[in-house]
Structure formats: C-alpha cells, structure tokens
Structure to design on (232 residues):
C-alpha cells in the first residue's frame, strides 16, 4: 500500500530534551516536506526537500532540523524543544518534475501530536 | 511566496443541502495547480479535488466540484447533497511550478453538517 508512515502518533516531552519524528514514504517521491498545524494558522511549512541531500527552509524553520540521506526517509529533529513547538506535525510527499507530475498531490502521514512541557 | 486565503473560518450546512467554501490566492504565475484537502476529526489529510490552472473546465469529483475563476484568482469548493461525513476542516492549497514546487495552504474552513 502506498503510504507515508510517520511516527510516533503522540509525543509528550519536556523542554530541552532532543527528539526525532520519523517519516518514511514508499512511493519513490522526490519531494518531501514537514508542516506544523496550529489553530487559526493552517499548515505552515517547516522544511522541504526536493531530492536526496537537498533540503530548504520553509516558512517556520527556527528550532527544527531535517536530513535527507535516503530518498524514502525525511526525519524531523528538534534539538532543544520548547513549549511554543507544541503542535500537530505532518510529513508529506509528492512527485515533482515536469508535465503531469505537477498535479501530483501531497500525500500525508497521519500526523504527530507533540506536547512540550 | 504565494498567499492562499480562506475567509470563512467556519461554515455550516443542513444535511442534503449545498454549501460553497471560498478560497482566493495571490500569484504572478500563469501556470499552477490547486487542491482542496479535507481533514476530518481523525486528523488525516484527504485529497478532495484538484484543478490545473491551464484547464478552463472546472473539476468535479462526485458531489464535490470547484468554481475556478483564474482572472479573479478564486477557487471555491461546492459540496452538493451534504452528508454528515462531510463535516471536517477543509484546506485550500496552491502548488507553484516555480519556487521548488512548493505547496501553500490556506488557514482552513471548519464545516459543520446539521442533521
């Protein structure tokens, strides 16, 4: 089954304790990205990647790190989480390139509800 | 960066009635793609419908259709014969063909379906 697998689904941590949210897709998508969803703000992009070893900042990258060592994996790292990073996080992937691939939608993981106390 | 605006934070509709959710966007690009996503309480993000900007014909998917007005930069979603299962948060999204194939999202519209 084609899917984006994101773990964990729920995470409660304390300020300053490093954490990683994993994301993996089995659709051979070049494009992967991370979003955070907050009430009234919609989905805001944190980081994105257009291919292996290529990552770029989105709109809200501060306090986050990513890596793309393999095409299928795109983990999100919070080196020193703070309470303002309490949010719902989504990983997503898509085809990219020319022609018909452009109307490829984003495929989302099931989300990670992160609480930082 | 492109801006996507959903001006209706909340909407409600009677079961079996029709509702239209609005979305506008700001862009200088001539070609791009537009999407509507549904997020039910399970928080899963589900693709509802997509539209290519170069196509004049409005996309339809069963009870869901769009009214795409390119000149007005408007992309509204019409839900016909509303069902209880349509209750969800709906997000409009814009995909750029230029800036890294980026997706830009609106702030969402929460739809309530009244039995």
């Amino acid at each position: 089954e084609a899917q984006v697998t994101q773990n964990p689904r729920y995470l409660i941590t304390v300020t300053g304790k490093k954490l990683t949210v994993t994301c993996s897709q089995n659709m051979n998508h070049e494009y992967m990205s991370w979003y955070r969803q907050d009430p009234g703000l919609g989905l805001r992009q944190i980081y994105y990647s257009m291919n292996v070893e290529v990552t770029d900042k989105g709109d809200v990258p501060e306090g986050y790190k990513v890596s793309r060592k393999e095409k299928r994996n795109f983990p999100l790292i919070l080196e020193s989480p703070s309470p303002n990073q309490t949010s719902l996080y989504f990983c997503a992937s898509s085809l990219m390139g020319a022609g018909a691939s452009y109307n490829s939608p984003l495929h989302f993981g099931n989300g990670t509800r992160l609480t930082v106390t | 960066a492109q801006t996507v605006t959903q001006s209706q934070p909340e909407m409600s509709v009677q079961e079996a009635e029709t509702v239209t959710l609005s979305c506008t966007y700001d862009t200088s690009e001539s070609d791009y793609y537009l999407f509507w996503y549904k997020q039910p309480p399970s928080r899963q993000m589900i693709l509802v419908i997509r539209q290519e900007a170069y196509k004049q014909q409005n996309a339809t998917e069963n009870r869901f259709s769009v009214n795409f007005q390119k000149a007005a930069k408007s992309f509204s979603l019409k839900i016909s014969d509303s069902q209880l299962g349509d209750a969800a948060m709906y997000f409009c999204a814009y995909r750029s063909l230029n800036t890294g194939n980026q997706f830009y999202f609106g702030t969402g519209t929460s739809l309530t379906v009244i039995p």
Notes: Chain B touches chain A at residues 1, 6, 9, 33, 35, 37, 43-45, 47, 50, 52, 91, 93, 95, 97, 100-103, 105-108 (CB under 8 Å).
